[in-house]
Amino acid sequence: MSLIFRVESVAEIGSTNDALKQRAAEGGDAGLVLRADRQLSGRGRRGRSWTSEPGNLYVSILLRPRKPAAEAATLGFVAALAIGNLVRALVAQPVTLKWPNDVLVGGAKISGILLESGGPEPTRPDWLVLGMGVNLRHHPAGALYPTTDLVAAGGPALPPDRALDLLLAEFQPLYQRWQDDGFAALREEWLRHAQGLGARILARLGGEEAAGTFAGIEPDGTLLLETETGVIRRIAAGDIFFAPA
Fold it and tell me: Where is the BPL/LPL catalytic domain (predicted)?
């Protein structure tokens, strides 16, 4: 059965993810979508703050796929595919996917994804809240990576509600495939758009760094890093940086 979305919009909120986590704990149904014109406490992966001024898209979706935790974690790759497909249809510049879930336009980040989960069984979450931010009209300066927005990349000045309609249309069939067959069914599609596949990268893993060639990803989303000695190292979490061209 296809997921049916029910969209709620607010002018201002602390965090769309936090609000939907509360709704999830109260028994909210899958498919609830919360969009805000502005967030006061937006955040991204690893607790990083996410600039959330009006004009961009800030949205969270409540989902209940009932998958094991390791498989549920791959939903971030699915969200990146959906955002990438949306942006690719609107700009002429190359749109690529950077592990684990960034979308790049001309090498600059245009979106952020935050996936959170909860429930009584840690190994099988009762709910997922998928938070997505897409830079439509402006982008932050001084970020860890180069950033951009849809207008700066040569795309149209989409209103956030219209961008959300387009994003949900991209996300729904991908989510259904993921729900039915797992990320393994979408892995090759993700790899076709992967930034830096086969190139030298540097992975920062907390207090450690590892260099090598980006050799691909596993069906569970784990990054495969081939070291200079030919050893394949599997990386489940971290930040990657590309060597200068």
Answer: 1-179
Q: Are residues 116 and 55 in the same domain?
A: yes
Strand order in the sheet with 200-205: 232-235, 223-226, 208-217, 200-205, 239-242
Place of tokens 């942006």: 87
Task: Write out the H or E segment, with its range, that includes residue 79.
Answer: helix 75-88
Provide φ and ψ at 240, rounded to 5°: -115, 150
Give yes or no: residues 125 and 235 share one domain: no
101 and 17, same structural domain?
yes
Backbone angles phi, psi at 6, to 5 degrees: -125, 110
As given in the structure block, the two tokens for residue 41 are 């406490």
CA 120 to chain centre: 25
Tokens 């979450």 -> residue: 125
The total of structural domains in the chain comes to 2
Distances (CA, A) of 46 to 127, 174, 181: 20, 25, 28
Q: Are residues 132 and 218 in the same domain?
A: no
234 and 216: one domain? Answer: yes
| pTM for the structure as a whole | 0.93
Per-residue pLDDT of the chain (245 residues; tens, 9 = 90+): 679 999 999 999 999 999 999 999 999 999 999 999 999 875 554 455 555 789 999 999 999 999 999 999 999 999 999 999 999 999 999 999 999 999 999 999 999 999 999 999 989 999 999 999 999 999 988 777 899 999 999 999 999 999 999 999 999 999 999 999 999 999 999 999 999 999 999 999 878 899 999 999 999 999 999 999 999 999 998 899 987 65
